[in-house]
Amino acid sequence: MIELKNVTKVFGNKEDQIHAVNGVSLTIHDGEIFGIIGYSGAGKSTLVRIINQLERQSAGDVIIDGRVMQDLNKKELNSERQSIGMIFQHFNLLWSRTVRGNIELPLEFAGVPKEERQRRSRELIHMVGLDGRENAYPSELSGGQKQRVGIARALANNPKILLSDEATSALDPDTTEQILDLLKHINETLGITIVMITHQMEVVQRVCTRMAVMSEGKIVEEGTVRELFEHPRHEITKRFVQNLEETSSIEELAERLKTKYPDGQLLRVTFSGENTHDAIIADAIRKVSFPVSIVASSINDSATGPYGVTYLHLYRGTDSEYNTFVESLVNAPVKVEVL
Amino acid sequence: MGETTLNIEQLLTAVYETVFMTFVSLLFASVFGLLIGILLYCTQSGGLLENKFINRITDMIVNILRAIPFLILLILLIPLTRALVGSMLGAKAALPPLIAAATPFFARMCVIAFQEVDKGTIEASKAMGASTSQIIGKVLLPEAMPAIVSGIAVTGISLVGYTAMAGAIGAGGLGNLAYMYGFARRNPAVLYTSTVIIVLIVFAIQWIGDAIVKKIDKR
Asked: Tell me, what's the ipTM?
C-alpha cells in the first residue's frame, strides 16, 4: 500500500516559490492500477517521483507498506527502490547496452550473480514479447519495442510497485494499446501495483481501476474510473471526459462523411498547432482547378497557432490532380489522411 | 647554405622521443583528466555528489592551468620537473609540463562528455536503486565513452603540438629536430621531413580515435 499524507513540494527560492505538489493525500491499494491524470504542469510527474524519492517532498509523509520513505538512509532507500520499478516517456534506455544488457542493469545494481541475471533476462524478454531481439541495441528498436525493454527492466528485480510516468505518451495509438495491454497483463498475472501518470484519458479508461485528477499541484477529484466518467464533478475532469468523447466520435464522423460524399476524395487534415500560421488550405486550393469544400471542421486557437481537424471534399478532378493537392498540404506541412 | 643531408638515426631518435612524450603524457593526462572530470561533473550543482566548495576549487585550478600558455607553463614548472625527474633536459623532463597542460584540457572535455549523457538514464538508474559509484561505473562512463575517446584523440593531437614546443627548448623530439637542425642550421630536408612526420602522427591519432569511436558508438 502506498500512502501519501499531505505531501507538498515547493520549488524555487523564498521570493519565487512554486508549489508543484500542494498538500496531496492519497492511498493506493495493493494490486490496483491507479491513474493520475492531469495537464502538463499539474505536478503529476513530481508526485510520482516523490513516491520513489527521486524528489524529496518539502513536507508530508510517503509511506510504502508501513515504511516511511523519507526517513530511510541511502542504503535502505536504494534497496527499497529495487522493489519499485519505473518506466518513462522517453524510455531512458542505455544506448551502449543491448536489450539484454539493459534488462540486466538493475540486476547488476542489486548484485545478482551472472547466471541468475541471464536466466531472469531471458524470462523477461519472453514475457514482454521481444524474443529474438535480445542482442539488438536500442537504436535498432521501434518506440514500442523500447518501452517493452523499459518494462522488462523495471520488472527485473520483481518489484511490488511499478511507476509509469507518461509511458505511452511518445507512442502511436496502436502501440499505446499494445503497451497498455502488456501492463494490464503484468498487473493481472504478477499482482503488481501500478501507478500511471498520464494526460491521456483513454489510457486511464483502458487500464485503470481508480483514478485521481490533478490540477495545480492538488488532487481535485478522486474515485473509481467509472464514477468519474459517469459523473465528473470538477471542471478539469469534465474536460478530460469530453476530450475522450470527441476522439471516439472522430471515426464515426469519418464514416458518416464517406457515405455522404461517395464520389471524389475525402481528406482529413490535422493541424497540430505548430507551423500553421500560413494560409495552408487556401494556398493548396490556388494550385488546383477543381472545387474543394470544407465539409466538417473543428479548429481552435492555441498559443502557437490553430489546432484541430478539417475534413475536405475534393471532386470533379482527376486522381493526379488530387495528389498534387495532397502533396502541397503535406509539404506545408500538415498531417493529411485520405479517407 | 647549411647541410642538406638527412641523418636517419637522428630522425628515428626524434620520432621515438616525440611518440614517447606524446603517449606517456597522454596516458597520465587521460587518467588524471578523467578523474578530475568525474569530480567536476559529480560535484556540480544538481550532481550526484553535489559539493559547491570542491567544485569551485577544482574548477578554478583547471581554469588557471588552462589559461597559462604552454611555453610559460614549461618555464614555471622547471623546479617541479627538476624535483621529479632530476633534470630539465630530455624527453622525460618534458613529461610533467605536458601532463600538467593536457590534464585540465582533457578534464574539461570529459565534463562535456558527461553532460551529454541523457539525464533520463541517470534518473532511471537512481530509480533502480543504484549507488553513486554504480551509476558512474555502469552508466555514466559507458554512455560517455565515444565522446571520451574523441577527447583523448583531440588531447593527443594537442600534445603532439606541445611536444614540438617543448622540443624547441630542449626536450628533444621532432620539434627540436625541426627547430635546431631544420631552421637554425638551415637544412630544409630536416625541416620538411620532421613536419611531414608530425602531420602523419597527428593523422594516425585522429584515425585511431575515429575508428574506436565508430566501433563503440551504438547510437
From this structure: 0.88
